[in-house]
């Protein structure tokens, strides 16, 4: 299809916005974000200059009513007759497969049991008249339209912004829809959203009610403390350019006297898929052990560390380029070396990160009580160019109801694209700042690293990387780093951010967000087949213009000045 | 996010039909998907690589059947179009004369539903081409896995007692998926035509475009009408404007009628035809039913040494 007008227009608009926003001195010309706190009428810059914090957690595991009772070929996927010889248990006797399909890897993978609960975890913070709720769900993602339901449910509370992140868990219920029986039958059931919504509402209300005067201890460390493997003990990068996101960030909140534990926000980057898809158990993957270690402490091998109590809240980082367990060989705290995916690997990564997190809190900066809060949020429209996504939308496989701008009496095309709403946000929590966006961005978007400075030695050696492309030598289509953008990167645009964070899969689920210099589509076959080299992520992205549009809005939001 | 592949159309476009050598009606003055090429053909359309294909020497295909032919007992084996599993409970109608527009020779009054193995036995003309229609049923797999109405032309019947005839059933899910992957909201008042094109060695042919004509010889086209679409690796592709290496084509959003003609066109260098545009396949009197799919496969036109100029589009 050769009608490229709208695309050119979008790019032109983006370029215009970017050109404008790149000039910090021009920040006054950026549009005011939809939400600005303090500053909006609902959140004037007045009131008690005291940090209040509360935390809560709910188990939101969907009830497993029906399940696969026989896995005849042991592949953890459901293949009933005539496809296979698998059998199922009809728990409610209605003759229908009311499964809890597990999202993220192979499908259909209906859950048989619960390894560890799927949770909704909440921190509510207040400074003066600004109140924010930070929600983390053990899910693959949660669409903006579903997040709107959560926000509506707590709209009676004096909360200015409810930020809802998913951990991008690949071992939880399918709240997106594409991991059901096949591409034509969604993996979600309304009961998921009822349970998750009710539990999250309850957790927000409890955290809100429990807010007490508080203080925070910060730290940000590279999770590379393993003596030989470094960061490769817990993280790998599956797509070139190989650029890691090594930082683990902690914000530990206690009561003002330090005695009362409230909660710990822990931020790290890795796909929670370490336990893989050779099981049918719901789990939060490595995040489960990470949070358990932070809350309850560690007694494993020679490691004995007390926990911090309170509620640990994990927020996912920029996992875009397959940051995760791919090539990880993990030495557990008891000395066991795990090289295969499975729950042992998830546990290994989780315990190791918990230890790093506890040490980070122990050596952190604080406690500090001067913790001003700021929040900005901007609702934006994105064209959905991926026609695989069109199919999922037109078939109601995706559980989102905000598709608009599309004449459904005509075929989707560049002249007739569906659009969706998403949101970008920025939070300041004292000396920490977080950019929130609803997809899986590549880490280099935030801090560069094209010069190899973010490519650890362990990865260079393990992958035998060509450092001119940060790619393996046999890559037939390596990234052309001469085209990669220079600074300022997103973190460079944050002012006085001692602890910068990129919160991925936050307030929406958009798939991958890839810098345009390395966004390569198969032609023809865009979005259906992969371009040569390592370009799977493009097939699971909203479209080639998504990141440029999001970036333009982010730059506007970060450079806007009252 | 790891995305399951949208594997759509299994290679179950079945038997090979002869490409009727028609009179080349229709005037190609425009295209429903005008992408800028000459005379409405897509820009950048490749030549058909003649040397790579076997254009002559196809096995002789039998003629269309008739009720007066010698009969043979045959077993229809019905499989799912996408996943190839046996489909139980399907009702077939059989058209001996390979024309699905008239009254079926066999229907529910004298044909059982397919059994658990997707099989049903019927008397059919021996060694002939017939058409069949799937008129109902429910797959055992996906509740509510409704089987769509479908027609397939030119299925060869066996020459021996008890021989098998391959047949397919298309689920509602597959039907919907084909359309939506192509960015088309399924329209229950319109039908779909789909098929494949290969050479005498059963090698799928790349570089053909499908053109559908109304019974009066005019091109079926218009706003959101008779949209020709193609596939890549058997998956519908919105940016593929001629058959890829899988040889598959489809025409979407077709108003119901009994008398469509389908032509397959391609560029054959040095053919002697104007613009080297050759009509490499054609079939007349195609029935399109609303909310249903018609399946029509072609082999290459067996020239038997004839000149391409006999098949020029213009």
List the helices and strands and how they pair.
The complex is a heterodimer of chains A (562) and B (314).
Chain A: H1 5-21, E1 35-37, E2 52-59, E3 67-70, E4 87-89, E5 113-114, E6 119-127, E7 130-137, H2 144-153, E8 161-166, H3 190-209, E9 212-222, E10 236-237, E11 247-255, E12 261-268, E13 281-282, H4 286-296, E14 297-300, E15 303-306, E16 311-316, E17 323-324, E18 330-331, E19 337-338, H5 343-362, E20 365-368, E21 373-383, H6 387-394, E22 419-429, E23 432-437, E24 440-441, H7 444-447, H8 457-463, E25 499-503, E26 512-513, H9 536-539, H10 546-559
Helix pairs in contact in A: 1-10, 2-3, 4-5
Chain B: E1 71-80, E2 91-95, E3 119-125, E4 129-136, E5 149-156, E6 163-169, H1 172-181, E7 191-198, E8 208-213, E9 227-232, E10 235-237, E11 248-254, E12 257-267, E13 277-288, E14 292-295, E15 298-299
Parallel strand pairs in B: 1-6, 5-14, 7-14, 7-15
Antiparallel strand pairs in B: 1-3, 2-4, 4-5, 7-11, 8-12, 9-10, 9-11, 12-13
Summarize the structure.
The complex is a heterodimer of chains A (562) and B (314). Chain A has ten helices and 26 strands.
Structural summary, described in words:
- The complex is a heterodimer of chains A (562) and B (314).
- Chain A has helices at 5-21, 144-153, 190-209, 286-296, 343-362, 387-394, 444-447, 457-463, 536-539, 546-559; strands spanning 35-37, 52-59, 67-70, 87-89, 113-114, 119-127, 130-137, 161-166, 212-222, 236-237, 247-255, 261-268, 281-282, 297-300, 303-306, 311-316, 323-324, 330-331, 337-338, 365-368, 373-383, 419-429, 432-437, 440-441, 499-503, 512-513.
- By secondary structure, chain A is of the alpha+beta class.
- In chain A, the strands form eight sheets. In chain A, strands 2, 6, 7, 8, 9, 11, 12, 16 and 20 form a nine-stranded mixed sheet that branches. In chain A, strands 1-21-22-23-25 form a five-stranded mixed sheet, covered by helices on one side. In chain A, strands 3-4 form a two-stranded antiparallel sheet.
- In chain A, helix 1 (5-21) runs parallel beside helix 10.
- Chain A is globular and about 65 Å long.
- In chain B, the strands form three sheets. In chain B, strands 2, 4, 5, 7, 9, 10, 11, 14 and 15 form a nine-stranded mixed sheet that branches.
- In chain B, a hairpin with a 2-residue loop joins strand 9 (227-232) and strand 10.
- Classes of the chains: A alpha+beta (562), B mainly beta (314).
- At the A-B interface, helix 6 of A face helix 1 and strand 10 of B.
């Amino acid at each position: 299809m050769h009608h490229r007008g709208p695309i050119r227009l979008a790019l032109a608009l983006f370029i215009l916005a970017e050109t404008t926003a790149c000039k910090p001195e021009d920040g006054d010309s950026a549009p005011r974000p939809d939400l600005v706190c303090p500053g909006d009428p609902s959140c004037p810059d007045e009131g008690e200059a005291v940090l209040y914090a509360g935390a809560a957690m709910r188990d939101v595991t969907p009830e497993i009513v029906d399940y696969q009772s026989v896995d005849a070929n042991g592949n953890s996927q459901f293949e009933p007759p005539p496809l296979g010889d698998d059998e199922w248990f009809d728990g409610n006797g209605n003759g229908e497969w009311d499964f809890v399909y597990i999202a993220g890897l192979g499908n259909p993978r209906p859950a048989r049991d619960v390894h560890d609960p799927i949770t909704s975890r909440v921190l509510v913070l207040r400074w003066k008249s600004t109140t924010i709720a930070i929600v983390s769900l053990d899910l693959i993602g949660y669409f903006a339209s579903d997040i709107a339901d959560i926000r509506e449910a707590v709209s009676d509370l004096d909360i200015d912004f409810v930020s809802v992140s998913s951990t991008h868990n690949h071992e939880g219920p399918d709240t997106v829809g594409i991991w059901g029986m096949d591409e034509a039958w969604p993996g979600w059931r309304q009961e998921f959203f009822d349970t998750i919504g009710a539990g999250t509402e309850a957790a927000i209300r409890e955290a809100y009610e429990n807010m007490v005067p508080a203080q925070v201890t910060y730290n940000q460390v590279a999770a590379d403390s393993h003596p030989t493997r470094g960061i490769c003990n817990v993280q790998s990068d599956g797509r070139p350019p190989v650029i890691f996101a090594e930082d683990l960030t902690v914000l530990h909140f206690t009561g003002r006297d330090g005695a009362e534990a409230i909660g710990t926000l822990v931020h790290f980057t890795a796909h929670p898929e370490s336990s893989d898809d050779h099981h049918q158990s719901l789990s939060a993957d490595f995040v489960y052990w990470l949070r358990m270690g932070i809350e309850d402490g560690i007694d494993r091998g020679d490691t004995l560390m007390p926990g911090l109590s309170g509620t640990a809240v994990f927020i996912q980082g920029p996992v875009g380029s397959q940051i995760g367990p791919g090539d990880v060989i993990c030495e557990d705290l008891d000395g066991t070396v795990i090289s295969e995916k499975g729950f042992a690997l998830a546990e290994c990564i989780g315990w190791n990160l918990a230890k790093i997190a506890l040490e980070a809190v122990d050596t952190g900066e604080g406690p500090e009580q001067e913790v001003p809060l700021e929040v900005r949020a901007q609702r934006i429209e994105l064209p959905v160019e991926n026609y695989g996504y069109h199919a999922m939308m037109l078939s109601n496989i995706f559980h989102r109801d905000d598709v608009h701008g599309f004449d459904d009496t005509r075929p989707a095309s560049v002249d007739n694209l569906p659009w969706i709403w998403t949101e970008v946000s920025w939070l300041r929590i004292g000396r920490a700042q977080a950019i929130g966006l609803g997809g899986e961005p590549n880490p280099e978007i935030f801090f560069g690293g094209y010069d190899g400075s973010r490519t650890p030695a362990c990865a260079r050696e393990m992958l035998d990387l060509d450092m001119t492309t940060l790619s393996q030598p046999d890559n037939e289509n390596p990234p052309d780093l001469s085209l990669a953008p220079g600074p300022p990167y997103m973190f460079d645009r944050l002012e006085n951010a001692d602890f910068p964070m990129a919160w991925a899969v936050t307030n929406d689920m958009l798939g991958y967000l890839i810098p345009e210099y390395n966004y390569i589509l198969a032609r023809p076959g865009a979005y259906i087949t992969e371009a040569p080299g390592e370009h799977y992520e493009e097939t699971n992205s909203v479209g080639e213009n998504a990141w440029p549009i999001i970036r333009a809005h982010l730059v506007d939001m970060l450079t806007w000045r009252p | 996010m790891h995305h399951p592949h949208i594997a759509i159309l299994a290679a179950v476009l079945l038997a090979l039909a002869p490409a009727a050598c028609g009179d080349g009606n229709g005037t190609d003055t425009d295209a429903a998907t005008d992408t800028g090429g000459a005379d409405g053909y897509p820009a950048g359309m490749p030549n058909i690589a003649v040397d790579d294909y076997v254009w002559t020497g196809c096995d002789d295909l039998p003629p269309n059947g008739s009720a007066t032919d010698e009969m043979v007992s045959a077993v229809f084996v019905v499989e799912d179009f996408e996943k190839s599993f046996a489909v139980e409970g399907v009702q077939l109608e059989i058209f001996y004369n390979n024309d699905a527009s008239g009254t079926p020779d066999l229907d529910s009054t004298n044909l059982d539903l397919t059994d658990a193995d997707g099989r049903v036995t019927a008397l059919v003309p021996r060694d002939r081409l017939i058409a069949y229609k799937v008129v109902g049923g429910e797959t055992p797999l996906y509740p509510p896995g409704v089987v769509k109405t479908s027609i397939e032309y030119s299925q060869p019947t066996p020459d021996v007692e008890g021989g098998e005839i391959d047949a397919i059933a298309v689920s509602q899910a597959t039907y919907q998926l084909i359309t939506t992957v192509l960015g088309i909201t399924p329209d229950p008042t319109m039908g779909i035509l789909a098929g494949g094109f290969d050479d005498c060695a059963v090698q799928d042919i790349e570089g053909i475009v499908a053109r559908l004509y109304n019974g009066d010889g005019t091109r079926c086209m218009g706003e959101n009408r008779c949209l020709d679409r193609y596939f890549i690796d058997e998956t519908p592709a919105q940016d593929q404007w001629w058959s890829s290496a899988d040889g598959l084509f489809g025409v979407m959003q077709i108003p119901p009628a009994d008398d469509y003609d389908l032509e397959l066109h391609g560029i054959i260098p040095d053919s002697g035809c104007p613009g080297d545009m050759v009509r490499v396949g054609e079939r007349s009197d195609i029935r399109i039913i609303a909310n249903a799919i018609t399946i029509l496969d072609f082999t290459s036109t067996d020239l038997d040494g004839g000149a391409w100029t006999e098949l020029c589009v213009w």
